[in-house]
UniProtKB/TrEMBL annotation:
SMART domains membership: RWD
Annotated organism of origin: Engystomops pustulosus (Tungara frog)
Biased composition regions of type Basic and acidic residues, renumbered to the chain: 156-167
Name used for this protein in its record: RWD domain-containing protein
Domain RWD span(s) in chain numbering: 9-111
InterPro entries the UniProt entry points to: RWD_dom (IPR006575), RWDD4 (IPR042770), UBQ-conjugating_enzyme/RWD (IPR016135)
Lineage start: Eukaryota, Metazoa, Chordata, Craniata, Vertebrata
Residue ranges, annotated region (Disordered): 130-168
Gene3D superfamilies per the UniProt record, alphabetical: Ubiquitin Conjugating Enzyme
């Protein structure tokens, strides 16, 4: 059987197996991605497998360079690829994309055990020499002081606004005719 026939059969099988699986993505007829773990999970990662012309007689290309993996160190990405390559060697000559994705899913904890998320700590040094460390993922929560209004000020504000708390259109417009008559200037002068 020719390599292209094998690829077509595997493509049909992958489509039927992963139909409706939001973790699987077909980027093209020979390029596939699978997300292992849930979005937002620290140990989640994405594998991309692409088939060369002579696949499955030759090994598929395995990549972890997707932006999704930006929190994973290059060394750990290489470790995962190396373990997947062991699976490739054991399955060379057969359709193996499903096998590789399932191996990654079944061994996620083992593959990601060395994962240390990058630290997003920012150190701030004040002008007085004080040092403060903050996490870049968590915004600095400073309570804003709200302006305190008296009851009379609140009533006056409520009288000016509509039921949504918005000022009516033109509330700050100047009546030109009244303005001109107050200043005493007319066009006849």
């Amino acid at each position: 059987m020719a390599a292209n026939e094998d690829q077509e059969m595997e493509l049909e099988a992958l489509r039927s197996i992963y139909e409706g699986d939001e973790c699987f993505k077909e980027l093209g007829p020979t390029v596939f991605q699978y997300r292992v773990g849930d979005i937002g999970e620290l140990k989640a990662f994405l594998i991309e497998i692409s088939w060369p012309e002579t696949y499955p007689e030759t090994a598929p290309n395995i990549s972890m360079n997707a932006f999704f993996n930006n929190q994973i160190s290059q060394a750990l990405k290489q470790d995962i690829i190396d373990k997947l390559q062991e699976q490739v060697e054991a399955n060379l000559g057969t359709s193996m994309t499903y096998t590789l994705f399932e191996y990654a899913k079944d061994n996620k904890e083992e593959l990601m055990e060395k994962h240390q998320p990058f630290s997003n700590t920012i150190t701030l040094i004040g002008s007085d020499g004080t040092v403060e460390a903050t996490n870049a993922n968590q915004p600095n929560k400073k309570k804003e002081k709200k302006e305190q209004l008296t009851k009379a000020q609140k009533r006056k504000l409520a009288d000016k606004t509509d039921h949504k708390g918005e000022l009516p259109r033109g509330w700050n417009w100047v009546d030109v005719i009244k303005h001109l008559s107050k200043t005493g200037s007319t066009e006849d002068d």
